[in-house]
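Hi R.,

Here's the chain you asked about this morning:
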Amino acid sequence: MPHTATRIVLMDARTAGPLFMLSAALLFTLMSTIVKLMPAHYTVWHLGFIRCFGGMLVLTLVFSRKKNPFKGHNVPLLILRGCTGSLAFFFVVSALRLLPMSTAVVLFYSYPAFAALFGFLVYKEQINRFQIVCIAILLAGVAILFDFRLSANALGQAMAIIGAVLAGFTVTIIRSLREHNGPVIIYFYFCTMGTLATLPFCIAHPIVPASAVEWTMTAGIICVSVAAQLLMNQGFFFCKGFEGAAYMSSETLFTAMVGIVFLMEPVSWHLFAGGLLIVGAGLAMHRLGRIQTK
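And the predicted structure, written out as tokens:
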């Protein structure tokens, strides 16, 4: 009986990790769509403040009533995760302003490779040849999906790569934080660090939503980002850093589908070929995890 119970727990864990990550990727796609449709006068600092300060308010009102919201285990690491996550967000959004979206997205989604590297350097997580091949296939799928072309804008490319490095490091340390912290406290520190970074600019250049539509979109960014981040943080309880990052790469496929269905973008072979490689690589790593835990 104990052996059977253990196998059930392992089965649930193997299912929960991909489920949390894919759900988070879908919600992050929705958030990115809303951000894309926001009026042009909202800068990266305004969007960052909306997401972070709004997230702080939601987490405080819903989860942190009658207790100290900053009380967590290993506060220095929580602060570090908040800083690196916020910086990754700012660098990637800045890259999107300087580069074609396809180039910026492809460069950013190299972060599963950096997550694997940091997992090995920081936590000595073992990466076998099969997993390396899966990561390479996944990155190739992202490149094909967005018809990758190098841009002459070296600054934008550098920002996208720096964002990928920071994201890779961030998702790696989230797994360590999840051992003693819930997903709420981890995201709360991200929101706190992001709010502190964006507040001076927003005070100097304030923007108030001018219509009911803008208020609705602002609320959408806050609510969807909170749900997506909590799901992702919870998912890293069941996945290694690079595995979770690989599942999160499905966001590229969801983004392409949103473009086709809602933005009337043309359908091409890139969607099918790239999507097949991304999904196939993720399923292969999932299958490998099942074999190793039997």
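The mean pLDDT is 78.

Let me know if you need anything else.
M.
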